[in-house]
Amino acid sequence: MPAFQSKTFRRTPTASSSLGERLGAVYRSKLTRHPFLLFGLPFISVILAASFVLTPATALRYERYDRKVHQLNKDEEMELGLKGPDGDEGIKRNPRRRVVGSERDEYYRLMAKDLDHWEQKRVQRFKGEPDGRF
């Protein structure tokens, strides 16, 4: 007779053991025989189901973002942040604001500039901002 029995020890079900304990014991005993079927397959199924559920949720997120951000046309680009000489509601005048008539006018305006004799000018800094001088 061998030193250890080949039979596995199984507790006798008592009235004190709950249904969860009994199901857990059955699951653990069957898990050793069929690990992929009882652990791997449910795990992979949850991962696949989550990807199908999260795809529309992610698409909704980006659709909301796209509704907030939209592309401007040329006229809106020229007006955005580049207000008139007095500004609108406290927005100060932007010196870069100008109305571009045609490409021909722009070409002649740039050609009229004297590019050989230019001088570098420092811009005024905000209070507390370092100006880069030592």
From TrEMBL:
It is found in: Mitochondrion inner membrane. Residues 76-97 are annotated as: Disordered. Keywords: Membrane, Mitochondrion, Mitochondrion inner membrane, Transmembrane, Transmembrane helix. The chain crosses the membrane at residues 36-60. Its main location: mitochondrion. The keyword Transmembrane helix applies. GO terms for biological process: mitochondrial respiratory chain complex IV assembly. It is a single-pass membrane protein. One of its GO terms (cellular component) is mitochondrial inner membrane. The keyword Membrane applies. Required for the assembly of the mitochondrial respiratory chain complex IV (CIV), also known as cytochrome c oxidase. May participate in merging the COX1 and COX2 assembly lines. Belongs to the COX16 family. This is Cytochrome c oxidase assembly protein COX16, mitochondrial.
